[in-house]
Design goal:
It is globular, with a radius of gyration of 19 Å. About 40% of the residues lie in helices and about 15% in strands. The chain folds into 2 domains: about 140 residues, Rossmann fold, CATH 3.40.50.1370; about 160 residues, Aspartate/ornithine carbamoyltransferase (Rossmann fold, 3-Layer(aba) Sandwich). It is an alpha/beta fold. The protein has a 5-stranded parallel beta sheet with strand order 7-6-5-8-9. Strand 6, helix 7 and strand 7 form a beta-alpha-beta unit. The structure holds phosphoric acid mono(formamide)ester (CP) and norvaline (NVA).
Length: about 325
């Protein structure tokens, strides 16, 4: 049984999972009646708010013939009178899979250890693999050869960067990340990405200079400077002066660069309206692709046979 806690859990089949999602998105014939989750319920636990993750999972599960149950932390026993491990064992008796948005990454690890059904990390403080799947799917839709793509991250060394870095390294993209001193990504994640890059030929490069990262980039990516759970760190934003994605900074990127953001965006902080709303921006395609990428992932993790059957049928 497979879980998805970080994007490198599915390194081997990652490219095919994304091709599956792109094919499925454009397929008007077979996809509408493809229901591998028929008769199954998938539960999603949220300790933090969500718009994209919640709606894209609910709608995607529904489209695959399943029943989506959203479990908000305030409404269930988890964290009050019940442990993560006991919750996992109880939910496994009812559900075909569990998605979990939590604070501590250790909690989703524990849920996966104790669950007898697949567990998908729907964002922890350390990883956001579903976002990276949608992001690389969006890049694939727009760029012919991923091995010639330079991704520039400008901002915090956070959960979204961690999985973007791993995902880029799996697929052979060059990834440059510009972060203020003290906000570097976790070293164990960088080490994992470096190992993947040795196989794929990616170039990985950390800098503290946003212009160095963005120069000649095909993709310019940012995220909020203050993540969920860090609301008390009000002064953190002062450390990100010079890290805003604005017209001047993107003038160093390739002309046909893609602007990407996982959303929600804090317009005026990490990105200006002029960049968010420019023709280069694919942020709403990314949001849509959360659903298609997760439908591929759900099918892959829950019913490998149905997933392979669809691949063979579509012969992409
Ligand atoms: N990008 C993302 O995960 O958005 P939500 O917080 O709205 O789910
Ligand atoms: N880094 C952000 C991503 C939100 C989708 C957070 O964790 O809040």
């Amino acid at each position: 049984m497979s879980n998805l806690l970080a994007i490198d859990d599915i390194s081997e089949d990652f490219a095919e999972i994304l091709e599956w999602a792109i094919t499925f998105k454009g397929d008007q014939e077979v996809a509408p009646s493809f229901t591998p989750l028929d008769g199954m319920s998938v539960g999603s636990i949220y300790e933090k708010p969500s718009t994209r993750t919640r709606v894209s999972f609910e709608v995607g599960i529904d489209k695959l013939g399943g029943n989506a149950l959203t479990l908000l932390k305030g409404d269930i026993q988890l964290g009050k009178s019940e442990t993560v491990g006991d919750t996992a064992q109880v939910l496994s008796r009812y559900l075909g899979a569990i998605t979990y948005r939590c604070y501590a990454h250790a909690d989703v690890v524990e849920l996966a250890e104790k669950s007898s059904v697949p567990v998908i990390n729907a964002l922890s403080y350390k990883h956001h693999p579903c976002q990276a799947a949608a992001d690389l799917m969006t890049i694939m839709e727009n760029k012919d050869d991923l091995k010639n793509v330079k991704i520039a991250w400008v901002g915090d060394g956070n959960n979204v960067l961690h999985d973007l870095l791993l995902a880029g390294a799996i697929l052979g993209c060059d990834v440059y990340w510009a972060v203020p001193k003290g906000y570097e990504p976790d070293s164990d994640v960088v080490e994992r990405a470096e190992k993947l890059a040795e196989i794929s030929g990616s170039k990985l490069c950390q800098t503290h200079d946003p212009i160095e990262a963005v120069t000649d980039a095909d993709v310019v990516y940012t995220d909020v400077f203050i993540s969920m759970g860090e609301e008390d760190l009000v002064d953190k934003i002062n450390d990100f002066k010079g890290f805003q994605i604005n017209d001047e900074l993107v003038s160093h990127a390739k002309k046909d660069y893609l602007f990407m953001h996982c959303l929600p965006a804090h317009r005026g902080d990490e990105v200006t309206d002029s960049v968010m709303d420019s023709d280069n921006s694919v942020v709403f395609d990314q949001a849509e692709n959360r659903m298609w990428a997760q439908m591929s992932l759900l099918t892959y993790l829950i019913d490998q046979e149905a997933w392979s059957t669809y691949s063979e049928l579509m012969e992409y």
